[in-house]
Design brief:
The complex is a heterodimer of chains A (about 375) and B (about 575). Chain A has about 375 residues and is α+β, with helices and mostly antiparallel strands. Helix content of chain A is about 25%, strand content about 30%. In chain A, the strands form 4 sheets. In chain A, strands 6-7-8-3-9-10 form a 6-stranded mixed sheet, sandwiched between helices. In chain A, helix 4 crosses helix 5. Chain B contains 21 helices and 2 strands. In chain B, strands 1-2 form a two-stranded antiparallel sheet. In chain B, strand 1 and strand 2 form a beta hairpin. In chain B, helix 1 packs across helix 13, helix 3 runs antiparallel to helix 8 and helix 13 crosses helix 16. Chain B is globular and about 70 Å long. Classes of the chains: A alpha+beta (about 375), B mainly alpha (about 575). Chain A: InterPro entries: AAA+_ATPase, ABC_SmlMolc_Importer, ABC_transporter-like_ATP-bd, ABC_transporter-like_CS, AminoethylPonate_ABC_PhnT2, Mo/tungstate-bd_C_term_dom, NA-bd_OB-fold, P-loop_NTPase.
């Protein structure tokens, strides 16, 4: 289900993955994955645990060789090469710093082996530590640094040999929320500056949305969607992507006519029906922030009366549970603190809302299949 | 920024790398093969030789269960079987409550001087098992000063064997039970107390269930140690026959290898059973304690604590006496008539044709087993745990490495006799050499060391090898620069464990020594046989002194020298 429109012409790809399959016993971790990654691109593999994103990263690194399929880097077939014959640097969630070596010795670990002169190594280490914002810390031991600092040392170590590819395996997951935010920006900034092709694995959609040039959403060993963060968020290719990236409420519905939906006895217009045959059962998705309450024209499409069933206070905004007057469908809506104040929204109040046709996402999967997929 | 342009000319390097790559896999593979080959020769084939021998007659023809039938048709031999079971059951029944109370005092009270009491309980680990038997001869033997306490019974027989076995196995039980009682969730006690549970009920419903796996494991270990121990019944068994002395007599005395093989197979049964139970219990024990458990912190309670001090004083005194009397007696001119101090008993040439040589041979053998064994075992564990070459062979090597713990020394020694002494075996040139003693000792104590190494290696980030690979650093560089320095404490533990066991072991090597490779522990058996009990005690004293000396050196090294190289652990 790769979105071909975002895949560039093949001759530009720095990293090319073709029909990659990996099984662990009966379990298929990767199922015929194909993907091209461009020079200098920052790509995130996003998905829930067990979706195969880490397996894919480790296959790219050569740490766990795939059962079938090919990988080429910079035009060179490395499908069955051991890690040392590939050209990459890697950063792990656990930092994996050598605890008995100083920060400087950690960073220069790969340089020593390449027979650099001592002076060159010293200069390079200083340069890298400067780059990750840890100058003058070279003589310390990893245990003396904070988690965020350790991860930056790991980053410097991975970049030391100027690899063509940087692999990041959940690099921020072990860190505190605040440190995570800061390091997120630093990594992104560093990547832009060096222009190194980067693949990051994460299960955190926010991380993927803020950092990536392109996101690869994975589930059950297949790619669900490839696209820019805005694309993935605004035009989720599947119900899974819609649910995993951001929040969405789902309804059971039917495509009555082209561009015409029926759900809970209400007729609604939608902008994109994905060319499905009229009469098919569909799942309709709606993001909470798309529910319009203010400045509604009387002739606005898809307007309806709803009752405020529940309000969940979340600080900057409120998540409201709205129940339609007809049909009793449940809609989630995010109301800003502003709107709550201006409209004096309260429990059991009746509101008029509009669901813009372009914000109604139609998916071919029937809703009960969606639920079972989540349970699995 | 210069970074983007400072890429090295990679062509030459990657060509060199390309040459390096197969060799990295090749080295790992070769190490796996070497380790498997070593374990195959040192444990699997000797065991197979023993097994097959028990089904062959003297002419080497297959006779099915005939040897077993002959064994069970002989009432004297069957008596030994029952004697062995009786002694093992009795010793276990005595040791477990003793050790449990002792371990409870060490873990669940605020008794003072816990480290000292712990150390005293572990003393017998530094001596050959038969040393306590020698002490008993001095205390309760025909010339013993407390002979009256036996009311006319003789110490040479079940009474002596049982007391000596209790002393010998006590530290093993304490070690297991301290671990089991130490793994407790303090929250359970807080909950029980909050619910107003009486102390006895807490003990019954929280403490005992928590330690039950430790109790089971300790019982099996003690039972196996007793039933397979050779030194104690040899010294103090008198006319009371047990399986271990039967094997010795059959093989060394009567050259009846078939019967020896049958008894060896019988001895294997409790050991294998104990091994299986231990594996099972271990798995459950881990599941018992979640990662969120908070260790139990005992609160001071003067009456209880003092009670346990009194108990531990008595037990520790008895344990120390069981070794100390032999040490004392080794410096006495003529027990019990002339108690003046002498070093004459250390003039070994008077008592033993090999003189002092057995002692030096022992030290040399222990040093070699310790050094070679540590290198083989730690490197082996590393290859099994951290490399990816030959998954099947690595699994097989791990299986073989876990095997020796289920094989009693006497059985292993027998297997070596049958395998390495066979005329068809080109390896028989090693028979009775120092080499075979070293290999046998490393193998005998392989499993515990292997587990120590694996545990240490598992604590290391499993991505170190991945990181090195990404940095094009071959695994042996990371092994040398990172893995070994991090694991140095565990490596030292293994080396000391091997050394001490090599010094004290009797059972396996009794079949394997030669004229020039007699060990100190074997010399003790011989001098005791010849009636030179004081000299035997002197040799035992030397072994204990050497073992404790090495252990003390280990503690000093660990605390003062190693600590200086481990500054990277400190914040």
């Amino acid at each position: 289900m790769t979105a071909d429109k975002t895949t560039p012409p093949s001759d530009q790809a720095y990293l090319r993955i073709e029909d990659l399959t990996k099984r662990f016993g009966q379990f298929t971790a990767l199922d015929r994955i194909s993907l091209d990654i461009n020079q200098g691109e920052f790509v995130c593999f996003l998905g829930p645990s067990g979706c195969g994103k880490t397996t894919l990263l480790r296959a790219i690194a050569g740490l766990d060789i795939q059962d079938e399929g090919r990988i080429s880097m910079d035009g060179r077939d490395v499908s069955f090469s051991p890690p040392a014959a590939r050209d990459f640097g890697i950063v792990f969630q656990s930092y994996a710093l050598f605890p008995n070596l100083t920060v400087a010795d950690n960073v220069s670990y790969g340089l020593v082996n390449q027979r650099w002169s001592r002076q060159n190594i010293r200069d390079r280490v200083a340069e890298l530590l400067e780059l990750v914002g840890l100058p003058e810390q070279g003589d310390k031991y990893p245990v003396q640094l904070s988690g965020g600092q350790q991860q930056r040392v790991a980053l410097a170590r991975a970049l030391a040999t100027s690899p063509g590819l940087l692999l990041l395996d959940e690099p921020l997951s072990a860190l505190d929320a605040r440190v995570r935010l800061r390091l997120r920006e630093q990594i992104r900034e560093l990547q832009r500056r060096l222009g190194v092709t980067t693949v990051m694995v994460t299960h955190d959609q926010e991380e993927a949305l803020t950092m990536a040039d392109r996101i690869v959403v994975m589930n059950h060993g297949v790619i669900e969607q490839v696209g820019t963060p805005a694309d993935v968020y605004a035009n989720p290719a599947t119900a899974f992507v819609a649910d995993f990236v951001g929040t969405m409420s789902f309804f059971e519905g039917k495509l009555a006519a082209p561009g015409q939906l029926t759900l809970a006895g209400i007729n609604l217009a939608c902008a994109d029906d994905r060319g499905l045959t009229p009469g098919s059962r569909v799942t309709v998705g709606l993001r909470p922030e798309e529910v319009r309450v203010r400045n509604l024209d009387p002739d606005q499409p898809n307007t309806m009366q709803v009752r405020v069933d529940d309000l969940e206070y979340l600080g900057a905004f409120c998540r409201a549970r709205l129940v339609t007057e007809t049909g009793g469908a449940v809609i989630l809506a995010d109301f800003s603190a502003n709107l709550m104040r201006d409209m004096a929204v309260s429990l059991n109040q009746t509101l008029t809302v509009s669901l813009p046709p372009e914000s109604l996402h139609v998916f071919a999967t029937p809703i009960e299949d969606l639920a079972s997929e989540e349970a699995a | 920024m210069s970074l983007t342009v400072s890429r090295q000319p990679t062509g030459a390097i990657s060509r060199r790398r390309a040459l390096l790559i197969p060799s990295e896999n090749f080295v790992a593979g070769a190490l796996v093969v070497l380790l498997s080959a070593f374990l195959l020769i040192s444990i699997a084939l000797p065991l197979y030789a023993l097994l097959s021998k028990s089904f062959l007659n003297r002419q080497g023809e297959f006779v099915g269960l005939e040897n077993y039938a002959a064994y069970f048709a002989n009432p004297i031999l069957v008596d030994s079987l029952f004697n062995s079971l009786f002694i093992a059951a009795l010793s276990t029944a005595i040791v477990i409550p003793l050790a449990f109370t002792y371990a409870y005092a060490l873990t669940r009270t605020c008794m003072p001087a816990k480290p000292l009491f712990y150390a005293l309980a572990l003393l017998p680990l530094f001596a050959p098992s038969l040393m306590s038997a020698l002490s008993l001869v001095y205390i309760f033997g025909n010339q013993g000063f407390l002979r009256g306490l036996l009311f006319g019974n003789t110490i040479y027989g079940p009474i002596g064997i049982t007391i000596a076995q209790v002393t010998y196995t006590f530290p093993h039980a304490v070690l297991i039970l301290v671990t089991a009682l130490g793994l407790s969730d303090g929250r359970l006690y807080e909950v029980a107390n909050a619910l107003g549970t009486p102390k006895t009920r807490i003990f019954r419903t929280v403490t005992l269930p928590g330690a039950q796996y430790g109790l089971i494991s300790a019982s099996f270990v003690v039972f196996t140690l007793v039933i397979t121990d050779f030194g104690i019944p040899k010294v103090i068994g008198g006319q009371y026959n047990v399986l271990a002395t039967d094997v010795y007599r059959a093989v060394v005395g009567q050259q009846n290898f078939e019967r020896g093989a049958v008894v060896g197979m019988i001895l294997l049964v409790p050991a294998v059973l104990a091994f299986a139970v231990d594996r099972l219990v271990n798995r459950r024990q881990v599941a018992l304690l979640s990662a969120r458990a908070v260790p139990y912190q005992p609160a001071p309670n003067t009456a209880r604590d003092m009670g346990f001090v009194a108990y531990c004083l008595v037990v520790a005194f008895l344990v120390a006496a069981a070794l100390g009397v032999a040490v004392w007696a080794s410096f006495i001119t003529y027990w019990p008539w002339n108690l003046s101090f002498t070093t004459a008993n250390y003039n070994f040439p008077r008592f033993e044709p090999a003189g002092w040589n057995p002692y030096f041979t022992s030290v040399k053998m222990a040093a070699l087993a310790s050094i070679i064994g540590t290198v083989v075992i730690f490197t082996g564990a590393y290859v099994i745990e951290k490399t990816k070459a030959f998954p099947m062979a690595r699994g097989f090597a791990h299986f073989l490495a876990m095997l020796p713990v289920a094989v009693p020394g006497l059985v292993l020694g027998l297997g070596y006799v049958f395998f390495f002494n066979a005329p068809w075996n080109p390896l028989n040139i090693f028979y009775a050499t120092l080499t075979i003693l070293v290999v046998n000792t490393i193998t005998h104590f392989f499993t515990v060391s292997h587990i120590t190494a694996l545990t240490a290696l598992k604590q290391i980030d499993r991505e170190f090898e991945s990181v090195s690979a990404s940095l094009k650093v071959p695994f042996w560089n990371t092994f040398r620069r990172v893995t070994v320095p991090i694991c140095l404490p565990a490596i030292l533990d293994i080396a000391v464990y091997l050394f001490i066991n090599a010094m004290t072991t009797v059972s396996a090597v009794i079949f394997l020594y030669g004229a020039h490779t007699k060990l100190a522990s074997i010399s003790i058996v011989h001098m005791d046989e010849a009636g030179f009990i004081a000299a035997a005690a002197a040799m035992a004293t030397l072994i204990v002194a050497t073992s404790i000396g090495v252990k003390a050196l280990h503690i000093v090294l660990d605390r003062y020298v190693l600590a200086r190289f481990q500054f990277w652990r400190r914040k």
